[in-house]
Amino acid sequence: MYLNNIFKLGALSAALALAGCGGDININTGSEEVVTVPSTPTQSAQELAYSGFATQNTSLSVDGKEVWTLSGTLVPSTESATLGSGDTGGQDANKIVLGNDVVWELDGAVIAGGDKENSIELEVRAGTKIIGGSDSYLVVSRDSTINAEGSETQPIVFTSKESALGQEGQAGQWGGLVLLGNAPVNSCPDLTACDAAFEVGNHNYGGDDTEDSSGTLKYIRVEFGGFKINDTQEMNGVSFAAVGSGTVVDHLQVHLNNDDGVEFWGGNVSISNVVLTENFDDSLDWTNGWQGSAQHVYIRQADNGSNRGIEADSNSDANAEPQSLPVLANVTIDVANGANSGGDAAEGILFRKGTGAHTYNMLVKGDVDSGECLEINDDNTVLSAEGAQLTMNNSLIDCVEPFKNAKADEAEGRSLSLDVEAWFLAQEGNLTGAADLTDYMPNSASVALTAGAENLSNVDARLEDAPYIGAFDGENDWTTGWTTGIHDSDSTEPQALPVLTSCPVGTTAETVVAGIYKDTNVNLVCTLEGNVTSNVTLLAGQNVMYKIDGGAVVVGGDNSDSATLGIQAGATLFATDNSYIAVSRGSKIMAQGSADYPIEMTSEQDVLMGAEGARGQWGGLVLLGNGLTNKCTDANECDVAFEVGDFPYGGNDNSDSSGQVSYVVVKYAGFKVNDTQEMNGISFAAVGSGTQVDHIQVHANGDDGVEFWGGAVNLKYVYLTHNFDDSLDWTNGWQGKAQFVHITHEDGSANRGIEGDSHKGTGDTPMSKPTISNITIEPGADIENASGDKGEGILLRVATAASLNNLLVQGRKGAEATTESGECLELDGTYAELVDNVNSNELTISHAVIDCNEPFKYSSDNTATTDAIDVETWFTAQSGNSTAAVTITDGIPAVTETQLIGAGKDMSSEDSFFESTDYIGAFDGQTDWREGWTYSPK
C-alpha cells in the first residue's frame, strides 16, 4: 500500500511537469482512481511581453532572432504591464518598449499614437533592428514621442527586409521614419489651429510650440528607404515635420535613400553628428520655416546617383512666417560626379525660395564632373543674401564649378541678380582653393584645420566650439563604429574601371588599329588638342587612352575664357613629340588620381608596340598662376613670359589656385627647344598655395623634374627619378613648402638633386625661401651627362634663402669619379645676398645627414675671397646636423638606423602644413608611401 501511494504521487508530479505541453492529461494509477490534470500552456518571455501590441511572424527569422510585426496604430493599453527584464521590452499603459531580443517588422504604415490623442511613448532599446517592406514606414504622431537611444557599438538600425535577409540593400525598399510635431510651420496662416498634411499618408503636423519634443534619436542608422508613391510623393530617410527644439537628434545616418536623406518642414529641431551618404535626391533639405541648427554634418553623394547636398527653401510667399532661418556649422559636402537617373546633376548647395540661414565652417568639395557647388536662386533669396538673413563665414569652396549666380529672368518672374562668388568672398573668412583631404578627413596641411570660425558657442548657444572648416578636425573620426558604407569598405578591392564606348565631349576619337598599342585592351583613343576654352573631363576606362597632340594643348585663355581640364583617376595620357599641356592663369587642372588608380602622363613611344620610352619624347605639364614672382617690379601688372611658348604668368595672389595634381606620374617628358629652352616634367610658374599637389612622380625627364618660378605652391609625397638635369629646382621667389621628397639619379645622366636660386638683381622681392622637410637625395656618380654636368647633391646659389630640415643626402661611394658622387652640398657665394642670407639665418639646414665621399664644396673657387663660406663649418654648427654613415635600401632605412630614426625635428610644431615626424629623410623605416602608385625605374 505504501509503495502504491508513492507511485501515485510520482505519476501526478510527472503529469504536472508535462502540463506545459498543452491538452488535458489523464493518469491511471492502476487501482482506485483516474486523475485528470488540466493543462495551461506556458508562454515565452517574448509572447508575454509583445503579444498585446504585435504579432509574431513565425515564417521569418533574422539574425537568429524571432521577428515580431507591428501594424496599424499603436495605442495605450489598460492591461497589466508586460515589460520584461534584460533586453526584453513590452508595454505599460502608454509606454511601448521595443526590445533588442527580437527583430521588429513594420507592416504598412505603423503609427505611434493618434493625432494629439492616445499618445504613445515609443522606446527602442540600443542594438534593435527594425525592418520594413515595400509599403512600410514608421510615424510618430503629434504629442507622441520616440526615445531611440543606441550607442556607438550598438546602433539602432532601420533597414529593409531584403537587407535583413542577406539580400542586396537598395534605395527605395521601404519607407522611412516620420516625426510629426507641434512647432511652427509657415504653411499655416494660423499656428494655433494648424493641421498641415504630411505628403505621404496625410498625417497632421504643425502648431505654435517651438519647444515641443518628439523624443530622442541617438546613434540611429536609417538605410535603403524612400519608396516612391508617385512623382510628387516619396519618402525621405527621416522626415522632421514641425518638430520642436525639445527633440534631441545626435549621431544619425541616412544611407542610400531614394529621395532626400533628411528633410525639415518648419520646426526648430536641431541635429548634430549626422552622416548622409549616397542619397538619391537632396541629402539635407529644408522648407516652410525651419529654424533649428545642424552641426558636424558629413554629406557624401553617389556618382551618377545624387542631386544636391543641401536644398534650402522657405516659402514661395515672401510674407510667410516664420522664415526658414537655421544655423549650420561644420558641414562637409563631397559633391559627386554626373547626374542621377532623374536627370538631376550632382550639386553642392542651393539656397532658394526666400530662405535665410547663418552658416559657418562649411566645406564643399566638388569633383571634375560635379555641378555648381554654391547657387543662390530667385529674388526673395537674393534679398535674404543682401539683407544678411543669408550668410556664410569661414567657409571653403574647393570645386571645379564653384558658383552659379542668381540671374534676372522675366519669363521666370525674377528681376534681381547676384554675383554669388563676390557675395561669398566678401564675407569674413571665406576661401576658394584646395581643401587637401584624404577621403573626408583634412590632412595636416589643410587650410580647413586653421581657418574655421572660433567661439561658435558665443554665436549660437546650440553650437559647440569647433574652430575648423568642415565636419572633422583631422584627428577624431566620430563616424566610426556605428555607420555603414564608410569604413566597412576600406579593405575591399578597388572597383574596376569601366569600359568606355565613346570619347568625352571636347575630344575626338581616332581609329585604333589592332596591335598598335602595348596594352591590347585599348580600342578607344581620344585626342585632345588646341585651345581648351570650355570644361573637359578625361574619363578613365580600362580600354581608353588620351592623345595629347598638335603642340601645346592650352587650357583656357590668359585670365579669360577660363576652363578646367578634369582627369579622372586611372586615366592614361600620351603625347606626341612636340606636344605638352599648359594650364593658363585663371584656369585649372583637376588631375585627381588615387593610390589604386594613378593618372599617367607619358610619351607616345612608351605606349606604342615596338617602341620604348626615353627622355625628352614630349613636353610635360605647365601650370601658370597669378602668384608673386620677383621677375616683376609691379605685381599688379605682371606678365612674365614662360620660357617655352611665351605664355604669361605672375601676379599678386600667392594663394591663387591652379587646381589639383594628385597621384600623377609624368614620364619621358622634357623635350629641348634649344640650349636655353627646355621643358620640365612639371613646371610651376607663379602657382599659388591654393593649388593642391601631392603624390607626384616625374621620371626620366629631359630637363628638370619639377621647377618653380616664384609662387607659393606646396607639395607632399614627391618622387623624382632619373631626371636629366636638376630634380627639384626653384628660382624667382618660390616661397612654398614641401615634405616627403625622394630623389634618385641615374649615373651619367643627371646633374643635381636640388638647385635653388632666387634672383640676380640686388633687392629683388620676393626672395626665394621655401621650407622643406623630410627629403632623401641619392645623387648619381660624378661623371658627366650629355650636357657636361656631373652628379651632385644640392647647390644653393643666386641669393636664395631656405629652411631645409630632416635632410638626408647619401652619395654614391667609391675610389674614383666614376664610382662616387660629386659634392653633396655646395653654396655658391658669387652673389652677396646669398652670403647675407647665411649670416642672417635666412638660409638654414637642420637635422640633416650628409653621407658622401665629397660632402661639401666651398662657396667660392677662391677660399680667400670675402664672399667665401666654409660650408662644412656652417653646416656642422647648426642643430642636429652630422656627416654620419647610414644604411638605406631603396631610400628606406631600417627601423634600427638610429642616425635617422628618432633623430629628426618635428616641423608640425612650427607649421601646420607639415605632418609630425621624428626622423631624418623621406621615410620612417616602416611605411613606403610610394607603394602601389609609382613607376619603378628599372
UniProtKB/TrEMBL annotation:
Residues 748-762 have a biased composition (Basic and acidic residues). Keywords: Signal. Residues 1-19 form the signal peptide. The keyword Signal applies. Residues 748-770 are annotated as: Disordered. This is Lipoprotein. The lineage of its organism: Bacteria, Pseudomonadati, Pseudomonadota, Gammaproteobacteria, Alteromonadales.
